[in-house]
Amino acid sequence: MTDDSTAIPVTGDTAYDIVVGRGVLDRVGDGLGPGVKKVLVVHPPTLAVLAAELREQLLDRYEVLLAEIPDAEAGKRVEVAAFCWQVMGQADFTRTDAVIGFGGGAVTDLAGFVAATWLRGVTLVQVPTTLLGMVDAAVGGKTGINTNEGKNLVGAFYPPSIVVADLDLLTSLPRNEILAGFAEVVKAGFISEPEILDIIEADVDRATDPTSDEFRRLIELSIGVKARVVSTDFKEAGLREILNYGHTLGHAIEHAERYQWRHGAAVSVGMVYAAELSRLTGSLPDAVVDRHRDILTSLTLPTSYPAGRWQTLLATMQRDKKSRGGMLRFIVLDDIARPSVLQGPETALLFAAYQEIAS
Ligand SMILES: NC(=O)c1ccc[n+]([C@@H]2O[C@H](COP(=O)([O-])OP(=O)(O)OC[C@H]3O[C@@H](n4cnc5c(N)ncnc54)[C@H](O)[C@@H]3O)[C@@H](O)[C@H]2O)c1
Ligand SMILES: O=C(O)C(=O)C[C@@H](O)[C@H](O)[C@H](O)COP(=O)(O)O
Ligand SMILES: [Zn+2]
């Protein structure tokens, strides 16, 4: 069998590869290292059968425990982290043992946080099973959980030893989850990689078909953007903030919707909002804002939000991690692939941009 996998490197102090391909799950062992004896596979209920298969695959070399956690955002809670800590404690996990995050972004965020905190850090292997997880969440070492006050408010920067993105895992992923993942693909296009936008516009059906060459190219381009950014700025001292394009409003929408909206859907609205902010400050031409709406609509992603929710969203946005004191900061665009920071915008400007996306 020929190996058609691609290895995209993250460089710097915490170097590792993102392995992309079909049938590449056997690469998980590459990230575990020689000293590892026990492995905890963290997975959602949806992937119970596949997680058991992964366990079988690893059993000849490791003692493998499974931790099934609640699905989606319900898994990103401190009680769920505590459940994983309990499983590891009762199985005498030591510093040489490891955690595997096997699921979508919610699982890889939680599993990463558990690995970062258990004994102050054990080996972490990320095996994303959603498009969003492959192109974004499992890459770059941002891990975390939500609190009642907001999204991802507790967490750690903690790198995996490898990310294994097996495209075969996407065959069972519902179409709406593929499309939600495309929000982060489009984000990578607008902040850094215009070819992504061209490929989607050329043929949206092929672009979103997990068996097409275009889909694979989009995955690799998007991972490439993320890998380059986090290689330069792992702990978000500066450049990494561009990956937050669309997220300031997006996270506030997720919180307002009690996490019943897909992350990608909320980020989609958030990107149109950020583009409108850019347009209203005079830095972005109308055509680029229109391009946001056209591409996201072609992917059936939302581009508007109910008019009456502004005060709630504004209050939640104050807790955004990019804020400094009372000053909000947004990632905006001066052009395609030219992101910048808008510091302390007037409330009137924020509201005017909201009116442009209000339905
Ligand atoms: N750490 C980061 O850098 C980063 C980046 C982007 C997003 N995120 C986080 O990622 C989360 C969103 O991730 P997501 O969109 O993957 O959502 P998710 O993890 O909730 O998964 C979406 C759904 O798909 C199901 N699923 C997963 N894999 C499947 C498969 N192969 N077949 C069938 N069903 C499958 C899950 O059970 C779930 O119901 C959010 O919490 C977001 O904050 C983190
Ligand atoms: O990796 C990053 O940095 C990102 O901002 C990627 C985002 O897509 C992701 O949703 C991230 O979890 C948001 O981070 P946060 O710091 O705003 O919670
Ligand atoms: Zn995101």
From TrEMBL:
Q: What is its EC number?
A: 4.2.3.4
The reactions it catalyses are: 7-phospho-2-dehydro-3-deoxy-D-arabino-heptonate = 3-dehydroquinate + phosphate
Q: What does the record give as cofactor?
A: NAD(+); Co(2+); Zn(2+)
- Cross-referenced InterPro entries: Dehydroquinate_synthase (IPR050071), DHQ_synth_AroB (IPR016037), DHQ_synth_fam (IPR030963), DHQS/DOIS_N (IPR030960), DHQS_C (IPR056179)
**Where does this protein act, in terms of pathway?**
Metabolic intermediate biosynthesis; chorismate biosynthesis; chorismate from D-erythrose 4-phosphate and phosphoenolpyruvate: step 2/7
**Gene3D superfamilies this protein is in?**
3.40.50.1970, Dehydroquinate synthase-like - alpha domain (1.20.1090.10)
Keywords assigned by UniProt, alphabetized: Amino-acid biosynthesis, Aromatic amino acid biosynthesis, Cobalt, Cytoplasm, Lyase, Metal-binding, NAD, Nucleotide-binding, Zinc
Record-listed Zn(2+) binding positions: 184, 247, 263
Which stretches make up the 3-dehydroquinate synthase C-terminal domain?
Answer: 181-323
Q: One Pfam family for this entry, by name?
A: DHQ_synthase
Q: Which residues form the 3-dehydroquinate synthase N-terminal domain?
A: 68-178
Tell me the cofactor note: Binds 1 divalent metal cation per subunit. Can use either Co(2+) or Zn(2+).
Q: Does the keyword rRNA processing apply?
A: no
Which family is this sequence assigned to? Belongs to the sugar phosphate cyclases superfamily. Dehydroquinate synthase family.
Q: What does this protein do?
A: Catalyzes the conversion of 3-deoxy-D-arabino-heptulosonate 7-phosphate (DAHP) to dehydroquinate (DHQ).
Protein name per UniProt: 3-dehydroquinate synthase
- Give the species this sequence originates from: Herbiconiux aconitum
Gene name tied to this protein: aroB
